[in-house]
Write a structure and sequence with these properties.
The protein has 266 residues and is an all-alpha fold. It has one domain (70-265): MetI-like (MetI-like fold). The protein is built from 10 helices and no strands. The chain has helices spanning 2-5, 7-24, 61-96, 99-114, 117-127, 132-159, 162-169, 174-210, 222-229, 238-265. The protein is elongated. It starts with a helix and ends with a helix.
Length: 266
């Protein structure tokens, strides 16, 4: 109980609750319509009526940041854990295969990791549909090789353990050995890394949206908001500052949480 009463832990808990509410129930945090425009309030400075100010069409920035968390954060979570899940299954299956198959799989994952993940995602988007879920799928596919490689190594280490060898000698079925001994061992390091990967995925999706490949106006999205605000940065700083700070805060949270989980699990 004392652990949760510490100021830092309490602050993190409040941040987590706020983030969940922004994604699941943004209307509980603001009643302002994020799509409502007001020509009389174009690029209005922060005030009591608009705590974060307004954008170039008079839309409330606070409401847009709150509602934009769903597209900006939730898609990163889906992309990172989707890639981790696929990579874990593929990597664990490869660890069970013969030596040549495992070696080929490792070379393929190495080839996939030689190019920057953002560039791979950009190339995938070029051949698929743009839009929010198209970009999310591209980021998922681009980040699979890293997770698959880690899963292969972890699962292979499990295959060489005494417990696994004993189970094999005793006649335990291949399927049971896969799910009881290899897969759980592969999951721990991969999903610890996936929490850090959420921050990376959020940055990648926001970057692609910044380039106009994700959600576009008027839908609220942090990457799109940053892209739109760059034109007016000489006239108003708040449309660039507040979405940028929100993005940095969320990415830092997932990366720090992931590092903490890695120290605990690995």
């Amino acid at each position: 109980m004392r652990r949760f009463l510490k100021p830092t832990a309490l602050l993190v808990l409040c941040f987590e609750v706020l983030l969940v509410l922004m994604i699941v129930a943004p209307w509980l945090l603001t009643r302002v319509d994020p799509l409502a425009t007001d020509a009389a309030q174009v690029l209005a400075a922060p005030s009591l009526a608009h705590p974060f100010g307004t954008d170039q069409t008079g839309r409330d920035l606070l409401a847009r940041i709150i509602h934009g968390a769903r597209s900006s954060v939730l898609t990163g979570v889906v992309a990172a854990f989707g890639a981790a899940l696929i990579g874990t299954v593929l990597g664990t299956i490869a660890a069970f295969g013969p030596g040549w198959e495992r070696s080929l799989f490792m070379r393929i994952t190495e080839a996939g990791m030689t190019l920057p993940e953002f560039l791979i995602a950009l190339l995938i988007v070029a051949y698929t549909n743009t839009g929010l879920w198209g970009v999310t799928l591209a980021v998922t596919l681009a980040t699979i090789p890293g997770y698959a490689r880690i899963a292969t190594v972890s699962a292979r280490n499990a295959v060489l353990t005494e417990a696994y060898i004993t189970a094999k000698v005793l006649g335990v079925g291949r399927c049971r050995r896969f799910f009881v001994y290899a897969l759980p061992t592969a999951v721990r390091p991969v999903f610890a890394l996936a929490l850090v990967g959420v921050g990376v995925a959020i940055l990648m999706i926001s970057g692609l949206t910044f380039l106009g490949l994700g959600l576009t106006s008027p839908d609220p999205d942090w990457g799109a908001m940053l892209s739109q605000s760059k034109t007016y940065v000489n006239r108003a700083w708040w449309p660039l500052l507040f979405p940028g700070v929100s993005l940095i805060a969320v990415v830092a949270y997932f990366m720090l949480r992931g590092k903490q989980l890695q120290r605990k699990w690995l």
